[in-house]
């Protein structure tokens, strides 16, 4: 099974991939415009061909509607989508990088990918998926 977790944002997209015995974060994708985001997600799907996509879903805020639209688009294309509360993923990612002595400057570029990794790990635990 191959699972792609996406921390979807208007400035950056973080992604993390799980496939048998492997869990790894992908480099954050920096967006030049919010209109580029869906295109980049489609590129991730084409490149990694996941069986399941996990989307971080914020409890509130304007990005929530964007996530819902993205989820609907993916479902129409036959992609299995799971929405997962991402309420604390950024905080968890920031804390983890702080503990690893990652500089504040470097954290900015890594936080989205690390947030996606947290989403993926939460989904794997919730669904009790083993490698």
UniProtKB/TrEMBL annotation:
A Pfam family: RuvX
Q: Where are the transmembrane segments?
A: none
Q: Gene3D superfamilies under this entry?
A: YqgF/RNase H-like domain
Give the EC number(s) under which this enzyme is classified: 3.1.-.-
Any GO molecular function: hydrolase activity, acting on ester bonds
Query: Mind listing the GO biological process terms from this record?
Result: rRNA 5'-end processing
Q: What are the entry keywords?
A: Cytoplasm, Hydrolase, Nuclease, Ribosome biogenesis
Q: Which InterPro entries match?
A: RNaseH-like_sf (IPR012337), YqgF (IPR005227), YqgF/RNaseH-like_dom (IPR006641), YqgF/RNaseH-like_dom_sf (IPR037027)
Where in this chain does the record put each YqgF/RNase H-like domain? 1-93
Q: Where in the cell is it found?
A: Cytoplasm
UniProt GO cellular component terms: cytosol
UniProt-listed HAMAP family: Nuclease_YqgF
Q: Which PANTHER family match?
A: POLYNUCLEOTIDYL TRANSFERASE, RIBONUCLEASE H-LIKE SUPERFAMILY PROTEIN
**Family per record:** Belongs to the YqgF HJR family.
Q: Tell me the function of this protein.
A: Could be a nuclease involved in processing of the 5'-end of pre-16S rRNA.
Know the name of this protein? Putative pre-16S rRNA nuclease
Q: Which organism is it from?
A: candidate division WWE3 bacterium
The gene it comes from is ruvX
């Amino acid at each position: 099974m191959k699972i792609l977790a996406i921390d979807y944002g208007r400035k950056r997209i973080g992604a993390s991939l799980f496939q048998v015995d492997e869990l790894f974060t992908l480099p954050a994708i920096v967006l030049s415009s919010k209109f580029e985001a869906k295109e980049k997600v489609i590129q991730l799907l084409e490149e990694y061909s996941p069986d399941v996509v996990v989307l971080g879903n914020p409890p509130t805020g304007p990005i929530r509607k964007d996530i819902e639209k993205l989820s609907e688009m993916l479902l129409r294309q036959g992609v299995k989508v799971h929405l997962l509360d991402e309420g604390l993923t950024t905080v968890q990612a920031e804390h983890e990088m702080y503990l690893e002595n990652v500089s504040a400057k470097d954290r900015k570029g890594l936080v989205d990918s690390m947030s996606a990794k947290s989403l993926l790990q939460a989904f794997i635990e919730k669904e009790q998926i083993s490698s």
